[in-house]
Each structure stands twice: as C-alpha cells, then as structure tokens.
Amino acid sequence: MDDSKIKWGRSQLGELYERWPKDGAGEPEKPVFLRRSLCVDMEDQLLVNMLEAYGIPCLCVAPGDGSFGRVVLGMSGCGMDIYVPESLYDDAVDLTKEENNEEL
Fold first, then answer.
1. Contact 87, 32 (CB under 8 A)
2. I need a labelling partner for 61 at 20 to 30 A (CA). Which of 74, 79, 85, 101 fits?
C-alpha cells in the first residue's frame, strides 16, 4: 500500500476514502463544511443517509470532546459537523433546503 495516501486522517484507507471524489492528481477533494447537526432525534444520521442516497459522501466530525460522547452515550453532546466534497457542495445545499427554501 502506498504510504503517501494514508495521511487522510486514518491509519487505514476506508470505504469513505474510496467513495470520496479525487482530483486530477488522484488526491481526495477538499472537504467543505456543510452544517452542524445537533444530533437531536437522529437528525444527523437522517441527513447523512439522504445525502449518501444521492451519491454525496459525507465526512462527519464530532467537535471538541464529541467523539468521547459518541462512545459513552451513543451521541455527541457537541453536535456533529458534516463535510461534503467541494465539487458536490452546491448539490448538498440544494438537497438540505426545506420547502420554504431555508436551510435546515
């Protein structure tokens, strides 16, 4: 395995890395912040699942000590930051708007 590709935040390449769009040099596109979900009523998982169903991979990051909360409580008390590939950002924004054209 090429060690130069393992610097994308994991010691092993995962499924998200494989699905994430690559640039002309074969490197992953820049992740762009889409929104912070408060992890209330599974809102974050519903949003991620919807985006994934439309072919938009999502990188979820728990800010602060949120990762610890996910291990202990099953959810992050700090919410979840959702990132999408730069080239798919506009599509993700359109998909996350409510009928009244306001972002969720």
1. no
2. 101
The CATH homologous superfamily of the domain defined by 30-95: Hypothetical protein rpa1041 (3.30.70.1530)
**pLDDT higher than 80, residue 43:** no
Mean pLDDT of the chain: 76
Domain boundaries, the chain: 30-95
> Measured between alpha carbons, how far is 97 from 25 in angstroms, rounded to an integer?
33
| Structure token pair of residue 18 | 């494989």
18 pLDDT above the threshold of 70: yes
